[in-house]
Specification:
This protein is α/β, with parallel strands linked by helices. The protein has 23 helices and 12 strands. The longest helix has 40 residues. The protein starts with 21 loop residues before the first helix and ends in a 26-residue tail after the last helix.
Length: 600
Amino acid sequence: MCPFRGLEPFREADATSFHGRRAECAALVSMVAHHQWTAVVGPSGSGKSSLALAGVVPRVRESGSAVVVVRPAPSHNLRALAAVLLPLLTPDVSEADRIDHAAELAELLAHQGLAPVTAALLERTGSRHLLIVVDQFDELLAPEASGAEVAELARVLFDDGLPETVRVLTTLRSDALDAALAHPDLGRVLTRQQVYMLGRMDVEQLCEVVAAPVDSVPGLSYEPGLVDRILADARTEPGVLPALGLLLELLWQRRRRGLLTHQAYDELGGITGVLSYHAEGVWERHVRPEDVGAGRRLFIRLVRVPWGTGSATRRTAERSELGEDEWYVALQLAGARLLVVGRDDDYTETVEIAHTALITGWPRLAAWLAEDHAFLTWRESLGRDVERWTRSGRVPGLLPAPETLATAWGWLSVRSSDLSMEERAYLEAARVRYRWRRRWWLWAAAVSGGLLIGNRLDDSVQATPATAVAGGVCLAALGIFGCMLWSTRRLLTTAPWHRVWVLALAAVLGYALAYLTGQPVLSRPAHSAFNPSETAQVVTAIGALVSAVGMSAAAVIRAVSLLIHARNDTARVRAGLPPAPPADPAAPDQPQGAEDPATQ
């Protein structure tokens, strides 16, 4: 049996094979014993999960505590917690009834917290304490994570009313720390935790990781000088543990009569090249030429760029997000352990990349992500907007503005398959809303102009110098307004300041129309009465007046909102936030002619 774990993290069952972190294990066990909340924070590839699961959990369990391990999910986080607590509370529950019982327990946690559950669990198991390990805590920051669920989980696990018999241990990537502190719910949680910063292993620890598993297997050894060579390469690489674990596993597979050789080390590319060698080999063997496109789409779905970090990380995709061709590729690569296929607590099939180290260590994937970085950054922002819109009950006011929709439609027209159904529904709702507003503007202008023309043709009203001036202004504004719209063809995709000028002209046009149409009514003496023959003129004048005033007021409001939006954009640029990708020239209701925004 192979003594190495490859890209897979060590679990509780692998405790005897877990080496190199004795001091860290002792320190963390002590922190967990004396503090209710402890967080292990370290860079990707530093072994946070292995330390918590294979180092801390077995020692805490030996001290007489009950332990459960939960990993955050995009949704139903309380149900995920309930699913791991359920076997300790009711071990006799069948698999068929587990989902219903977990849902009931999640409801209990939401309303009463952990106190009643903990009391029953400790009594049944005969334990003194309960340790809850939340592995990969940073996954709660994913845009698809339900805000309400995150808030509920934070309240249940980190509330002041948490029983003294409960301990919570979380693992968090250091590059996600700023985003977590800025989160409205998780920031408050993290500030009250004891933080253990996990650094890189020193040479002595790395030597134990390399040598101890081999020493424990009779008849297995390294060629002379190979250990020193591995350690010399490992010292220069940040986040080396995933690559080192994979290298040792592949060396074991290529052993010759129980000997791990220099030749195999060279063939694998050493520490620096083993991830690329392994991933590329798996890709070439298991992905057919006709499935290359599906494979690329699959990996783009499995990666996200967390807001504020700029560095890509893994995300878990559900089976429903993938096409049949993508799922086929996922199964092929999972069989070669490049991907991991599993089920969440609702028995929904999921897939994810075997380790974050592959994102930067595999040149093929790194090149894809470099090409798609703008799209991934935009998709992360879109996910947050969709989550906020959904959480608010789909309030129309939270739909994107026309200028934001122009950018989104450029992506949607060419990357629709890379978006979820909820994200596409969000953009479609914005498109419908904008199209309705644009048609309202055209209707208001048409009605006002038609009524004005009809009113002016009535010989019973004599023109005055004021009405002549207003008419000239109206016609000039109408001409300029039409030329600008014709030159840009689509109001939605013009530059922000250009739109402000268009809207200002629309306001002038509206006020001129209002004066011209209302003048026949407003200019008459208050004591004079209308003749029955003037009824049509009065009705048309009032109708045109209301329509024109409405159009001009809407133009002013919209122009002000655009100025505010432009000011906010300037502030975002000064703050160093990533720029949005260029907008596609296609109109929202005519997307079929769009080009790829990344190539414009």
